Amino acid sequence: MTTSTHRVTSGKITLHAVTEGNPDGAPLVLVHGYPDNLQVWDKVVKALAPDFFLVRYDVRGAGLSDKPEHTRDYRLPLLAGDLEAVVDQLLPSRSFHLLAHDWGSIQSWESVGTSPLQERILSFTSISGPCLDHVGAWLRIQAPDLFGGGSTRVAKQLLKSWYVFLFQCPAIPEAMWRMGLDRRWPAFLQKREGVPDASFSSLQKNDGRFGVKLYRANFLPRLIRPQPRYATCPVQLIIPKHDSYMSADLFGQLNQWAGKLTRMQLDAPHWAPLTEPEAIASAVRSFIGPQRVP
Hints:
This protein is of the alpha/beta class. 40% of the residues lie in helices and 20% in strands. It has a single domain, classed as Rossmann fold. The protein contains ten helices and eight strands. The protein has an eight-stranded mixed beta sheet with strand order 1-2-4-3-5-6-7-8, with helices on both faces.
């Protein structure tokens, strides 16, 4: 099993990508969230490598990929274009399975629900990352429901999403990362997320600084003007039971957006790829089933 690194051109930027695992296995693309880079998948990749040909990449603004300065350069269609560029170069003309966490899942819904990649995605396993368009539709239904519990569910999620509002403030989140939040991040993961082996990364400061642009570029436009996003591939929704940031209520109406939906609850916090990699690998392996691609 050989590991190879790649530079992928997507529009005006280049992305850092890695391929590894079983060359005879079904292709599986992994997309990380915020404020992470592709290393968040290390343990999951180790567990899946014997069965799948794995592709993972640093999303724009993270890891060793380019980091555009303008917020507009982090819009969802551009992120979907990045995934398209990665698979076109590393999996030319091949269909693939998709596994994503947090913001990686949020941005992957754009590809799962629209052309041209929709026709090539064989399955989608989503961990702690709803489609923003689905959230916008959910809010329109829940918020006016004062007596049926809808408004309470919205309030509960808003409390969990306090950081989203912070990230809309110019300069403040970036200043927090510059002032040493990157040094404190391992301690946060250890104490709040139960990640005993969390360690400092020299990439963390920039991962945090530039990644906030994902929130500014996409949250308000999509929540205000949601678009229909229907998944034609089978979708597996993994819901960490102790997720401090995503309420399971957000996914209550996902059946109307995914025709073939599987739900599973995992006894884990938000950063499940770091704390329960074997459980995630097992869920993916079971969901996809045994496959071999020449």
